[in-house]
Every structure is written in structure tokens, then in C-alpha cells.
Amino acid sequence: MVVALVLTPKGFPVAYEVYPGNTRDTATLEEFLDRGIPTEEMLEKMRSRGIDCLVGTPKGRLSRVEKPLLEQTWMQARESVRVKILKQESEFYVYVESHDRVVKERSMRRRRLKRLWRSLHELLNRKHITRDDLLMHIGALKKEAGRDFGLVRISQPNPQEPVNEHTFHFSLDRERLRRTLLREGRYLLRSNMQAASPETVWESYLLLTRREQAFKDLKGSLSIRPIWHQLEKRIEAHIFVSFLAFCLHTTLRNLARGRAAGLTSEAILEKLSTLQMIDIHLPTTDGRHMVMSRCTQPEKDVSFLLAQLGLSLPEQPPPKIYASGQIGL
To answer: Which of 83, 161, 208, 290 could in theory staple to 157 by disulfide, Cβ–Cβ 3.0 to 4.6 A?
Structure first.
């Protein structure tokens, strides 16, 4: 199945729809406009309807507009984000550079390259390794390194050749690495929001990351999958409950954003899970039962968290007395 989800600019869920599993993401646009799954045909439909769109653009397209972008000046959109604007006839490109993203991507790439380089040296130093085993290990390294695998030139032995330092060697593609480093933390966006400022464009783009986080939450902590149900109505009920849980998580996350920054909704719920509601049953001398519902006393850190979030525990309810035989009602 395919689940389509619509969020508000602040990341709150509005609605969702369930489609058959063989539905292409782009086919849902007619019923559910989703800024994250553009095709040229869909973008044209949105423009013809007067709908503003903002889409992430593959880095391959950057080569087409890189020269005119170099002629543009940087504008500061946020403290650690600057942009370049390239206007065209009916739309424009936004070239974004995020300092925080540069640091993150560079650190991740450095770790992957070090791991790849170390593994290649281990293969080179292995004795009596066959060509088939070598190719199998290189294939696994390629999968692990992802795109960074292309930053290394690898010469492999021909069939029937032994594996040694003459037939198997590797080197860093420094020119390709240089181009990659220049594009770290940079994104090319495309939009027809002519009246929008760079700050607005960037903030709108952040919605895409919120949408990705939404699906991550649904698939992970909210357990939208796996689904073990067989009947369609039970599957729909399972998804509905997961969607309601996501609404609560989002509400809690936005509540914490201004009052307990740094805490995720999962961390808050884990803290609050120490609170329990218990029923105390006390038999009376005349054969009846007294039931007192009580909340456990919160620890100091939980009390502080509740105060930060502006939440308070309910008042302890008064005792209830049941006649004999009614206690299970």
C-alpha cells in the first residue's frame, strides 16, 4: 500500500489517503498535491492551476545552471544559510548553502571514505584471494559507500589474472572529490513563487524535511508497519490509529519546541511513562468495596518537564464505594 500525507506549513498533519501498493507516488498528485514528488508534467499542471510549487532539484541539473549562478551574489537567508537566486521566465532557481549541512555532509563523507580506503587496503593485503572473491567484496563495499564509491578509481584484474598489487590497485579521484566538496551542503531548488523572499523559500523547503520525518515516525516509533491484518477494514483501522498517534506526537513536538527545546516527543513520552494511574481496592466491614484511583507521585525531573510544557496532572478523584458483587462492573 501507499500512504499519502498532507501537512500544514508548521508540520501539523491535515489528512491522509491510502492507495494500492502498485500506485506510483506521482499518480497521487491529482487527488493529493505533494510538493515532494514532481515531474515536468505534474509541475505544468500545477502551474496551469495557479498553484505555487517548490521542489528539490537533482544535483545533475546544477551543471546546466552553474555558470549563470556563479555570476549571482549570495544573499543571507538565515544565520547559517545563504542563497543565490537565478530568475527565468516563469520560475526561478534558488541555490542554497547551509553551513550546518556542509559540516554534517563533510563529516559523513570523510567517515565513509576512510572506511572504504581501509577496506580496500585490507583486500590488497589479503593472501590467496581469488578474483571472484575480490569482486564480491568490492561489490559489498560499493553498496556500503554509496555515491562516495565513485570518488575512488579502482583497477581490477582481468579474468584468469592473479590478484596482486599490479592487477589490483586504486587511487583517489581528486578532481571529482574537489567538485563534490564544492557542492557539499548545497541544494538547488526550483519554484514559481515569484513574490516570495529567499527566507520564505527556504522555510518552505524545510517542510520537505518535516514530511520525511513524518513518514519516518509513522514507519518507526508509531508502528504503521508491519501490518499483520488480513481484512481491508482492519488495515484501514490500523493506519487510522497510527495517524492519530502521529497527530499527538506532532502536537507534543510543537509544544516542546518553544518550551523544552531539544527534547523529542519520544523522549518526552518516555519520561512521562513513569507516571501511572492505579486503583486501590479496600474491602469494608459491611461487605462493600472502596475503590480509590490515584496517580503516582512524579519524580523531580518529570515535575519540571510538566511545568516547562505547561501541563498539570488531574486532581485525585474521590473514592468510590461499590456494593458487593458490583466491583467488576
So the answer is: 161
Cell of 241: 490509529
The 10s digit of each residue's pLDDT in 31-58 is 544 444 456 666 676 667 666 676 777 6
How far is Cα 229 from Cα 237, in angstroms, rounded to an integer?
Answer: 10
Between these two residues, 92 and 103, which has the higher pLDDT value? 103
Residue 167 near residue 42 (C-beta atoms within 8 A): no
Condensed to tens digits (0 to 9), the pLDDT of residues 178-229 reads: 888 888 888 787 777 765 565 566 566 666 555 556 656 666 666 666 777 6
Pairing of strands 13-19, 2-7: antiparallel
User: What ranges in 126-231 are assigned the alpha helix state H?
Assistant: 131-145, 174-182, 198-219
The answer to whether the CB of 198 falls within 8 A of the CB of 82 is: no
Domain ranges of the chain: 101-182, 277-322
